[in-house]
Amino acid sequence: MNNKELALLSNTARQEIIKMLVRSKSGHTAGSLGMADIFITLYYDHAKTDAKNPGWEGRDYVYLSNGHICPVWYTTLAMRGFFSIDELSRLRQINSLLQGHPHNETIPGIENSGGPLGQGISQAAGCALALQRDKKPNRVYCMLGDGELDEGQVWEAFMFAGKYKLDNLTAIVDRNNIQIDGYTTDVMDLEPLADKFRAFNWNVIALSGHDHGAIKKALAKAASTRGKPTVIIAKTTPGKGVKAFEDKYEWHGKTPSEEEGKRALEELQAERANIEKRWF
Amino acid sequence: MPENKRQQPTDANIPADTKNTVKNGVKEIAANNAKRDNGTEKPKEIVKAIRDGFGEGIMLAAKDDPNVVALCADLTDSDRLEEFKKTYPDRFVEVGIAEQNLIGVSCGMAHTGKVAFNASFAVFNPGRSWDQVRVSMCYSNANVKIYGGHAGITVGQDGATHQALEDVAILRCLPRITIIVPADAIEMRKATLAAAKTPGPFYLRGGREKFPQVTTEETPFEIGKAVKLRDGDDVTIIACGIMVREAMLAAEELAKAKITARVLDMHTIKPIDERAIIDAAHDTGAIVTAEEHQITGGLGGAVAEVLCGHIIAPLERVGVKDTFCESGNAPDLMDKYGLRAKDIVAAAKRAIDRKKGAGKRDTLKVSGSVIKRITKTKKR
Fold first, then answer.
1. From CA B106, how far away is CA B109, in angstroms rounded?
2. Are B131 and A148 in contact (CB under 8 A)?
3. In what order do the strands lie in the sheet with B315-320?
């Protein structure tokens, strides 16, 4: 899929995320908007999935370790046809399909239940190891937040994936530099992050998480790398696409009001017109 | 501490006249055929640790089902996975000293269709991995089976840090998990096989010390169904783990005082056999629970919950009473912390006294007197 198409789909996803969060009045805005380009590229251009048969044996397994950004996962899955797009309007409501944090048993296409940080990457590593032992070609993807890297469990999992040379595993770190209490630099400095991964025997690719071309290239490079798991450290802008939300850690866990939502949608629609005109 | 560097513990309750024999790769200690007083031959007593039952069970399960895998957190031999590791190297995973990752990796393997058994010591797993057990395993309904080894005070010399006495309590509140505390190695082997064949999260609790077996190959085993090892009218002793044997010894002791006791081997703590508890309360009117665990939240707690929901009968709980224990050998610790047949006998007598004090089934009167006593104490 070409980069223009991916940019337009990412813009659609952002609009759906704003709409669902305005309606639910509860959820996580910044990370969801920030990761839209990566989710769209992964699901539309790279990962093997089957919306009609989510449990298909030949599928690639997608895990979300920082479960709170599930609005972007739900939106992407709905756009790909895993469930009706109408479900998005009932996020976090009683008797609805879409839980505040992902639940693997009930939501089609969701590989892992998650929310308590650090748990997804261990499951992704276990899944990758089982596939490696069975000599199966399926790949495993796992999204993590950068704040999540404060958790000890992720480093247990990184060490494990390095030891077992899980080259069928690609981790993608949303390096947006925010967490609830402030900037990651202030709360718990992660740098030098790439060096930490290299020291754990990982292949490291750093890129802009909004550059569809770079994301495509990195996913392909990770898939062809042998003997090491790959981490893509994706520098992203939290709240990407809506100037009022961008780079503000206050938007980690709050939702737009009706008025803020309306202005955000106008801004995203204007951006859509720009994408249509832009040369890719 | 590496297992092999640890001082060899004194085996609890092994008769002095036993000798080591190695059979089927599993160390067994067969008691000498000691002559009984009347000259008849005493049947051979097999002395074995519950963990050996896990090792045997997982080997049988692995033979049955190629999807059975085993994961360990640096305690392979202690948790009796050495033979599995040698026989099925491609199905064994060493995770290192990382119990949270141990649970997560097990769940991920289960997502691809594996039946993932993982093993550590109960103090670490579920002790250090509870959140992972809750979300990755139970909420996600992963087909993962935890073996919590070296549980209880009988792990002995390592001291309070290593004596898991809370593991059942912290797991029992989690939806979906099946909790099994087998009485002996034979029952653990059966439980391991049953866990492998039953989808969903499991916890199997094992211990290190060798004890004489209380069940036999013929003893029935069904998940969620208590085994009536002995019948009686005056009191029911509901026990799990190594306390089943103490319960049987207690019943013999009580018989000498013309008190007949029913003994239930309540191997499954969750889902608990409510029918067996209600029947016991109805038939014998007095209940004693016995467990190598804190008396809150484990078997005693589970039985109390059933009783208060259905039928009132005096309940006395034998177990560790809201304290951390200490280093020592297993028999000494069992003596000091009240986990012996004599403690069960005393508890049974108390329960029977309370039943008599209440008059026949006059449960309201009991409640009234208890309330009065509590009120008095408070005023003071």
1. 5
2. no
3. B227-230, B261-265, B235-239, B287-294, B315-320
> Is B32 a domain residue?
no
Domain that holds residue B103: 48-212
Mean pLDDT throughout A185-207? 97
Residue with token string 């040369």: A279
Contact predicate B59/B83, CB 8 Å: yes
Give the H/E segment covering residue B108: helix B99-111
Q: Which of A129, A135, A141, A169 to mutate to test the interface with B (most CBs of B within 10 A)?
A: A129
* A117 closest CA partner among B136, B271, B192: B136
B307: domain CATH number? 3.40.50.920
Q: How far is A21 from chain B (nearest CA, A)?
A: 25
Q: What is the mean pLDDT of chain A?
A: 97
Residues 21-80 of B with CB under 8 A from A: 69
Using CB atoms, pick whichever of A105, A115, A157 lies closest to residue B101.
A157
**Nearest C-alpha in A relative to B90:** A133
CA distance A85 to A67: 20
In tens, the pLDDT along A107-159 reads 999 999 999 999 999 999 999 999 999 999 999 999 999 999 999 999 999 99
Chain B interface test: which of A104, A110, A155, A156 (most B C-beta within 10 Å): A156
Interface with chain A: mutation pick from B68, B71, B95, B101, highest number of A CBs within 10 Å:
B101
Picking from B147, B165, B123, B241, the residue whose alpha carbon sits closest to that of residue B203 is B147
Q: Which residues of B touch A121 (CB under 8 A)?
A: 104
**How does pLDDT run across A65-117, given as a tens digit for each residue?**
999 999 999 999 999 999 999 999 999 999 999 999 999 999 999 999 999 99
Annotated active-site residue B291? The verdict is: no
- For residue A111, the chain B residue with the least C-alpha distance is B111
- The values of phi and psi at residue B188, to 5°, are -65, -40
Of the candidates B69, B101, B140, the beta carbon closest to that of A153 is on B101
Instruction: Look at phi and psi of residue B132 and say left if phi exceeds 0, alpha if psi is from -120 to 50, else beta.
Output: alpha
CATH code of the domain in which B151 resides? 3.40.50.970
Looking up tokens 């997502």, which residue turns up? B111
| pLDDT tens across the length of chain B (380 residues) | 344 434 444 444 444 433 333 333 333 333 333 344 455 566 678 899 999 999 999 999 999 999 999 999 999 999 999 999 999 999 999 999 999 999 999 999 999 999 999 999 999 999 999 999 999 999 999 999 999 999 999 999 999 999 999 999 999 999 999 999 999 999 999 999 999 999 999 999 999 999 999 999 999 999 999 999 999 999 999 999 999 999 999 999 999 999 999 999 999 999 999 999 999 999 999 999 999 999 999 999 999 999 999 988 999 999 999 999 999 999 999 999 999 999 999 999 999 999 988 644 444 444 444 444 444 444 43
Domains along the sequence of chain A with CATH: 3-277 (3.40.50.970)
Give B202 to chain A, closest Cα distance, Å: 18
In this complex, which of B104, B113, B139 lies closest to A126 when CB atoms are compared? B104
Indicate if B77 and B139 belong to the same structural domain.
yes
Which residues on chain A are in Cβ contact (under 8 Å) with B69? Answer: 130
Instruction: Mark whether B130 and B203 lie in a shared domain.
Output: yes
Q: Which of B56, B99, B187, B292 is catalytic?
A: B99
Contact at 8 Å (CB) between B205 and B195?
A: no
Q: Are residues B205 and B290 in the same domain?
A: no
> Is there a single domain that holds both residue B205 and residue B232?
no
